Amino acid sequence: MTEINYGIIKLMKKRFIYSAVLIIVGLGLVLWGVPLALFAPQKAPSTPPTTQHIVNNNLTNINMEKKILMVVAFKDFRDEEYFIPKKVLEAGFFIDTTSTQKGIAVGSQGSEAVIHIGIDEINSENYKAIIFCGGPGMVNELENQDFHKLIKDFYQNNKVVAAICISPALLAKAGILGDKKATVWSSALDKSFIKILEENGAIYKDNPVVIDDKIVTANGPDAAEEFGKAIKELLSN
User: Fold this and answer.
1) Structural domain count, the chain
2) What is the DSSP string of 166-187?
3) Are 69 and 96 in contact (CB under 8 A)?
């Protein structure tokens, strides 16, 4: 027998033995009740929707009558005056936040607020209320004509208009506080914001929170929770 023939016979024997082993193992698995499909290549399971996908999908279905717009200074808004009312109102409403630009607004105490909607994208018909937060950064925005336009638009469309800390002075300068009772931040050494209210026809009240028709004002961070609750109650009526 030549070496070539001997090699071929040896290779065929190996293949026969290998095939026989596979057949025996397969029969054994079947007899033991193990489905051979387990050894077939498996398709990767489809990826379930992530929480973010679910949230985004739900946002598209939000009732516009359940939305509130909050306005902050892009730099140095007062942290408590944004986050505390926001927490109160989120139990029932979806909050949009705007400022003079998109991005990350930074509070005077270092907190951050995501600004995802520009002022030019806002339609008052999509909201129940607008809320202006205070803080040192808002001092520079008291003459902001874009803010004034928003205030007038919401007020003329019979929406709730609210402001806390020094921001009631912004409402006064926008011209909606004539003969309206309102409060604003002040101190023993600084009554300038009270003067702004009174010069624009408002009736100043030295109270933490003041409601006059659909206008809600508050005098500072200590009144932030009461301010949020007052807005929520007004919107619920």
Assistant:
1) 2
2) TTHHHHHHTT--TT-EE----B
3) yes
Cβ-contact 162, 191 below 8 angstroms: no
Q: Alpha-carbon distance 203 to 201, whole Å?
A: 7
Across the chain, how many H-helices and E-strands are there?
7, 11
Q: Which two tokens stand for residue 14?
A: 């190996």
pLDDT digits 0-9 by tens, 14-30: 555 555 555 555 555 44
Query: What is the spatial distance between Cα 111 and Cα 38, in angstroms, rounded to a whole number?
Result: 53
Please answer whether residues 197 and 182 qualify as being in contact, where contact means their C-beta atoms are separated by less than 8 angstroms.
yes
- Grade residue 101 by pLDDT with cuts at 50, 70 and 90: very high
Rounded to whole angstroms, the Cα distance separating 218 from 230 reads 10
What CATH number did the domain enclosing 166 receive? 3.40.50.880
* One domain, residues 124 and 147: yes
pLDDT score recorded for residue 51 = 32
Domain that holds residue 9: 3-39
Paired with 160 in beta bridges are: 129
Pairing, β 215-218 against β 67-71: unpaired
Q: How far apart are CA 221 and CA 82, in angstroms?
A: 9
Q: Using N-to-C axis directions, what is the helix angle for 79-89 and 224-236, rounded to 10°? A: 30
